[in-house]
Amino acid sequence: MGCLSDNSNQELLSANYTEHGDENQICGNKCSQLINGAYTALKSRYFWKAVLLGQFISLLLCGLAVTSGLLSNQGVNIPTAQCFLNYLLLCLTFTPVLACRRDEKNLCQRLKTWGWKYLLISIADVEANFLVVSAYQFTTVTSVQLLDCFSIPMVLVLSCLVLRVRYKPLNFVGIVVCLLGMGGLILTDFLSGNVDVKNTGKAPNKVLGDMLCIAGASLYGVSNVAQEYVVKIYDKADFLGMVGLFGSFINGIQFVIVERDRVMEVDFSSYHVLLPLIGFTVFQYLLYTCMSVVIQQTSATAVNISILSADFYSLLFGLYLFKYEFHILYFLSFVLILSGLAIYSCQSTESQLADITNNNPPTRDSYEEMEESSVDD
Questions:
Q1: CB count in 10 Å sphere of residue 29
Q2: Cys-Cys with 205: which of 48, 138, 173, 182 at CB 3.0–4.6 Å?
């Protein structure tokens, strides 16, 4: 019995060792796969193209923030009227392209088939700009910067539901790291004294301002996912032309109703007002045009986590324009955001039909099949 017991114990120990050895081997294989994936991503042109394009979008957002700050310093508060020029330029630039087409992609066909959809997308886009800019009147800049990140979970949810994207654990890790870097930027604002802590409680209606920012960020997420859907089925001119067309009417009517009196009070003859307004329009037009290119090459999610670094660039300009003070944690937070983007790109997302984030967009027929399967389900 003793011999049998010893043999049994040896067999159990051998089995446990083999089992743990297999588990260790599996863990080792997964780690090596992640390391190889990270190394491959860092070597790929796609990764660096995504990083550079995302940072260019961040610079354009920085330009919008700086010009808005300059207009605010002059007492100009016409957010809807400011955006009207951008929609008008988009309409004048891209809508004629659609009108000149002779196939099924022409303007008349788009109005018949997708007219009501573009109307809803344009409403979401116009109101997103209005709500976020209006939030600055009721809450603090810090709150707006934090709550503006709410567009990321909205994009994640809508990408899963509409685009059938399936994210992997490493993608979520990258997003969390980016958000931590964004939180570090906000925290450093307090540590460096660029935010007046004593005056942050003087917001006229902080709850209302926070709600406006959350609503605007949510609508930004809707607009970004809709933009990704359209540019990957059709093309950039299709989205920009239709949003420019509908956005001009929606935005124009809104600013006539809401901001007509305030526009009449603005002194447009002053270069302190005129130059920032022209700069705001140019930056916003370039932002809309370039974002369509970047989203087509990457994804709405990648763009939203990339532009978290826009606040870092705004700080650099604020050092000279608004007398901000630099702190080393700003740079560390910026590095953390870029690291999060690198982690996110190490593992490509999965789609039921195609790998969208690997620059292999699904075809129009594939998306139509996806819509049919959704109806059948």
A1: 10
A2: 138
Kindly state the helix (H) or strand (E) to which residue 294 belongs, with its residue range.
Answer: helix 271-297
3-state DSSP helix/strand/coil % of the chain, to nearest 5: 85, 0, 15
pLDDT digits (tens), the chain, 377 positions? 444 445 555 554 455 555 455 555 555 555 565 556 555 656 667 667 777 887 888 888 888 877 877 787 787 878 888 889 999 999 999 999 888 887 777 888 888 888 899 999 999 999 998 888 777 777 666 566 667 777 888 888 888 888 888 888 888 888 888 888 777 777 766 666 555 444 444 455 667 877 888 888 889 999 999 998 888 888 888 899 999 999 999 999 998 888 888 888 888 888 888 898 999 899 999 999 988 888 888 788 888 877 777 777 766 766 666 566 666 777 787 788 778 877 777 767 765 534 443 444 444 444 444 444 433 44
Q: Are 323 and 192 in contact (CB under 8 A)?
A: no
How many Cα atoms within 13 Å fall on the side-chain side of residue 203?
21
Strand, helix or coil for residue 30? helix
Tokens coding 357? 């984030």
Place of tokens 């763009």: 303
**Residue 351: phi, psi to the nearest 5?**
-125, 155
Residue 26: strand, helix, or coil: helix
- Pair 200, 130: CB distance under 8 Å: no
Report the distance separating Cα 81 and Cα 196, nearest Å: 30
0.90 surpassed by pTM: no
Q: Locate the domains of the chain by residue range.
A: 46-368
Smallest Cα–Cα separation from 206: which of 139, 148, 147, 137?
139
CA-based nearest residue to 283, from 63, 96, 24 = 63
Give CA–CA dist 339/209, Å, rounded: 31
